Amino acid sequence: MAAQLIALPAVERLSPACIRILGGNPGKFTLQGTNTYLLGTGRRRILIDTGEGRKAWISSIKSTLEQENATIDTALITHWHGDHTGGIKDLLSLSPQTSIYKNHPDPGQLDITDGQQFCVEGASLTASHTPGHTADHFVFVMKEEDAMFTADNVLGHGTAVFEDMATYLQSLEQMRPMFKGRAYPGHGPVIEDGPAKISEYIAHRRQREDQVVQTLALRRNNRTESPATMTTAPTWTAMELVKIIYKDVPEGLHQAACGGVCQILHKLEGEGRVSQQGDKWLLVADGRSSL
């Protein structure tokens, strides 16, 4: 997977008011590393996320601030995951005056509320609560560029993982009309047409959901037994579904894919479309198990 990723510099100016600083933590799930963003054109700047606490990141932050003759007035944390919060301690050691904002804040931090605005010269941000990847997940729309910092709900490469699929899809639908320009993701390169990428994400998730339903039905239709001889409804485990739906994906990624399939199954269960029996799943029709 890493071989498919384009190289990103450790520090890159993406627009007059936006500098991306990589977290120095490339990996299977972090891609080229966690993206952190320094925003604004004046002396006082806003920082989005802090990486996971790597020395390379705080070194890049320090040198960038020196080059820009700038300070970090405010740091906005998109969600609680360690690859976005791990650098907070290092940041405060370098810049103790920085105010840290985070949903469900830790001691010494400030809370972020839906619709809250954060402004410095050249950058005006509006916060929006968009749970799904995590329950505390926030994105930020930058007025000057009509752009969105999508954090981990939308990535620059591949697709995102999420805690709750139904909530995640609702958040994507919420995010799509909020801006018309770029998406600055939590991982991976800039997305030039952010709303179009969100539409792709929604379509992809709907396609995966359809594949789960179709595969469950395929198992049922391919049964050799007659209905009269069936003693139980045909069932699948989540991993059995993965083996079919993700047959073209390397097996090493099947466990991660299984998490997504489980999310789909739980969403369908909430809608009354599938039923769970232990670690097995089956289709439901008219409130009854399908045979």
Automatic annotation (TrEMBL):
Gene Ontology molecular functions? beta-lactamase activity; zinc ion binding
Q: Record's superkingdom?
A: Eukaryota
The segment(s) forming the Metallo-beta-lactamase domain are 33-187
Query: What is the recorded name of this protein?
Result: Metallo-beta-lactamase domain-containing protein
Q: Which Pfam families does the protein's record reference?
A: Lactamase_B, WHD_BLACT
Q: Which biological processes are named by the entry's GO terms?
A: antibiotic catabolic process; secondary metabolite biosynthetic process
Give the keywords, sorted: Hydrolase, Metal-binding, Zinc
Q: Which organism is it from?
A: Cylindrodendrum hubeiense
Q: Which cofactor does it need?
A: Zn(2+)
Which family does the entry's similarity section mention?
Belongs to the metallo-beta-lactamase superfamily. Glyoxalase II family.
Gene3D superfamilies in alphabetical order: Ribonuclease Z/Hydroxyacylglutathione hydrolase-like, Winged helix-like DNA-binding domain superfamily/Winged helix DNA-binding domain
The record ties this protein, via PROSITE patterns, to: BETA_LACTAMASE_B_1
